[in-house]
Write a structure and sequence with these properties.
The complex is a heterodimer of chains A (231) and B (425).
Chain A lengths: L2 E10 L7 E11 L4 E6 L5 H8 L7 E6 L2 E2 L5 H10 L1 E4 L11 H11 L4 H14 L15 H13 L5 E5 L7 H16 L3 E6 L2 H4 L4 E6 L2 E7 L6
Parallel strand pairs in A: 3-8, 3-9, 6-7, 7-8
Antiparallel strand pairs in A: 1-2, 1-4, 4-5, 9-10
Helix pairs in contact in A: 3-4, 3-5, 4-5
Chain B lengths: L2 H13 L2 H39 L3 E8 L6 H10 L4 E6 L1 E3 L3 E3 L2 E2 L9 E5 L2 E5 L14 E5 L3 H5 L3 E4 L4 H5 L4 E4 L1 H8 L8 E4 L2 E9 L13 E5 L3 H4 L7 E6 L2 H19 L6 E7 H44 L1 H9 L4 H39 L7 H28 L2 H6 L2
Parallel strand pairs in B: 8-13, 10-12
Antiparallel strand pairs in B: 1-14, 1-15, 2-14, 3-8, 4-5, 4-11, 6-7, 9-12, 10-13, 11-12
The chains are: A alpha/beta (231), B alpha+beta (425).
Amino acid sequence: MLIELKDIYKIYGEGLESEVRALDGISLNIDRGEFVAIVGQSGSGKSTMMNVLGCLDIPTRGDYLLDGVNVKELSDKELSHIRNKQIGFIFQQYNLVQNLNVLENVELPLIYQGIGVEKRRELAMEALERVGLENRVKHKPTEMSGGQQQRVAIARAISTKPPIVMADEPTGALDSHTGHDVLKFLQQLNKDGSTVILITHDNGIAATARRVVRLADGKKIEDHPQEVDWL
Amino acid sequence: MKIGQALKMALKSILGNKGRSALTMLGIIIGIASVMTIVSVINGANKKSMEMMAAMGTNKITVYASYNNGQDVFQDLYDFCQQLNDYVDGVTPNSQFDATVVYGTKNSSKMGGDGGMSYSMGGVTVTSDDGGGGSQNTEMPPTLYFGSDQYSVCNNFQIEKGRDLSLLDVKDYKQVCVLGARAAQTFFNYTDPVGREMQVNGLPYTVVGVYKEKDPDSQWSMDNIIVFPYTVSRTLAPDTQMSEFSVKAKSADAAVEATSRIIAFLTGLMGQNQEKGWDQVQNENQWQQSSNDYATMMSLVMGGIAAISLLVGGIGIMNIMLVTVTERTREIGIRRAIGAERSSIVTQFLIEAAMICGIGGIIGIIIGTLGSRIAGRLLMQMDIWPSLNITIGAFALSVALGILFGIYPAAKASKLQPVEALRAE
């Protein structure tokens, strides 16, 4: 099992009257090669879920085993390494570094891996070719459209060839046509063997995944495979 | 992350925000430039005064003594110093007097009338000219001294041409004189003065020798002098009472011993209540020492003031770096999310701060060098280049300031949880 969540709680202000249970006892297993959509309304806990799954946040209680390793027992440095090597993030707001150009943004995770210049350039160019931006490498993010920026972000996420790709509302800031391309790309990644976790509030978008996990008020209320809407 | 990559990243970030980087550097630039200028100028001045003191001669004792009845005290002092020959190399009067010196068309009373000034310092006449440019060519009237045959020993002169004053010249009231190099040039240009006759207050005096130049560049020349046997004062300047004398000791220790013995001797000679005269004895080594101490203290005080401006500059750096951290919280979050370790973030911000300060330091060093040169020219008519030590020190200081004041913002940046940092707008 690649991902095992065992009775995960994320509680803000525990013990206070204003206590918020963003994740309220969630258990979930995700296997290698799955394409899972985590769906829920705003405030359902899906973003918290993504942060926990992505090792960006630590659950209040419960165990999270990633590839058999309990995340709770890892140091900050080890968590950094996991984010760097195991997970590729795609965010709604792209989250590119504004003063770096396209190539430098895509190279960034490779820099933190300590990969040398030539190998780094090769891997980054490979990722940029996959998203069709190999001709825009010297552009700054601000000089590009939203769709192009999201493709840069995807290239950055896949440049290290991580086993898991997590996308948090990746089409949220895009028009439907561009969004369609992004989702198609995620499906392609999944076909190529990556485990893809897609966070969305939109059932239509969730329909592109092979499995749907629905959250409400921090609880899992639905979890089933589905017929895929291949794009 | 490799250090070369980190440096590149820092440079990129600095260049990506030119206006703010420049303003941040300003504090460091001003601080480093002023520290450099002040320290270099004080060092230069100190070096200059050390050179001047060395040229005047070390281990010198200046004696002021005079009988109330106007009788000459020198013979008594001379006799006493003969007994001190374990400690003393020579003794001479060191008295200035006024007279008109004429040779051919050159006339001392018609020289240097354009606002130049001359004054005596430690027994050596210092002549300066505030007439600005072209002053090198202005002829200044020489300063005239009465001295003994030991005048050159006591004042650190050496004979270049001819001979020095002799004991016989002194004993026999010979109408002779020895010229300093500058005075020789003024009156004789490049011809040999030895054997020529000059008119001093209308009396003929033969030049027997010329001293070697001691102080070639400075217009505060110690070489613009003419020395006469003190015994001719009766005819040349009868009103001059010799009350200032120089004693040359064999060593610094000897100077201390000789000073105390001369004080004791003069006290005996003059009487307890100064009924017979007055006296004062100074060991010039002490004066040199205290002047040296003073210069050191000055450079500490001034350097300290400049260091405060550096401190202010450093706090400016810290302030800007803190703002930068806040402004770039999201970027930090992104970097953390894609795998930057805390240490990478700390390194990034520290290198950025050190680099801003380092670049500021280099600019400060350039301005400080120019400042030292300009200040040296304007204040002291000297060519000052900051020493290598000061330059390296200034650069190291600026980088150290960057690191020192970058630590807190860098630590703050690295402590952010990735999820919180990503949430920032």
